[in-house]
From TrEMBL:
Protein keywords: Hydrolase
GO MF, any single term: hydrolase activity
Protein name: HAD superfamily hydrolase
Keyword Lipid biosynthesis recorded: no
PANTHER family noted in UniProt: PTHR47478, PYRIMIDINE 5'-NUCLEOTIDASE YJJG
NCBIfam families: HAD-SF-IA-v1, YjjG_YfnB
Domain of life: Bacteria
A family per Pfam: Hydrolase
Length: 226
């Protein structure tokens, strides 16, 4: 392959965000009068996915996303709980979680031998830096590009153009790897960057967004790119 730079999404691609979120929410029951049982955590997943989709589509701001989740959760389950400092408590716990997707570290180790690796994420900066360091994978990334710092969220072309500008490289030199068709793959495609979809749940792609490559496990990427 002629790629020089590999852009890799973090949440749900390298970091096991579902597991990390579950663990953090379970710990939150120590701070608030709420059990965070399986039903409640499942509702959080669905709500959170919906809100991040709205952020991608520029229907809400990042601050609105962050500030609405716990009030929405408690309201849905008819609980009146003070949420004044709850985000600070939640992120203090979440940032310490660092479970990885199966095969993530081995895949990064192998790709790092041949390519220059960069994380490309819509996640919050403190969380991404803390979790990648905690998982001891930060060493594989030359830099973590964050939409929070760039000023544009994936799939906005300006997110990718900012990276191209900083690295002074054309789109053909990049490959974007991610689990989200609507964010990672659509954004890369719109920016004329080749894309690889990590389809871990083996979904049927019924969208108009088509990746160049598709895998259902991370180690498959090594075989494709070697």
């Amino acid at each position: 392959m002629n790629y020089k730079y590999i852009l890799i999404d973090l949440d749900d691609t390298i970091l096991d965000t579902r597991a990390n979120t579950r663990n953090a929410l379970k710990e939150m029951s120590e701070f608030v009068d709420f059990p965070f049982n399986d039903e409640q955590i499942q509702y959080w997943y669905q709500m959170n996915d919906y809100l991040w989709k709205q952020l991608e589509e520029k229907q809400i701001s990042r601050q609105e996303l962050m500030n609405s989740r716990f009030p929405n959760l408690f309201r849905h389950f008819n609980k009146k709980i003070d949420t004044t400092n709850i985000n600070q408590q939640y992120f203090a716990v979440l940032n310490q979680q660092h479970e990885l997707m199966p095969g993530a570290k081995k895949t990064l180790q192998e790709l790092n031998k041949t390519y220059r690796l960069f994380a490309a994420s819509n996640g919050t900066s403190d969380k991404q830096y803390s979790q990648t360091a905690g998982a001891k994978i930060d060493q594989y990334f030359e830099k973590i590009f964050l939409s929070e710092n760039i000023g544009f969220d994936k799939p906005d072309k300006k997110f990718f153009e900012s990276i191209e500008s900083e690295l002074q490289a054309p789109p053909k030199d990049f490959l974007m790897i991610g689990d989200s068709l609507s964010s990672d793959i659509a954004g890369a495609n719109d920016s004329d960057i080749d894309s690889l979809w990590y389809n871990k749940n083996k979904k049927v792609n019924q969208s108009h967004v088509k990746p160049i490559f598709e895998v259902t496990s991370l180690p498959e990427i090594i075989n494709i790119l070697q």
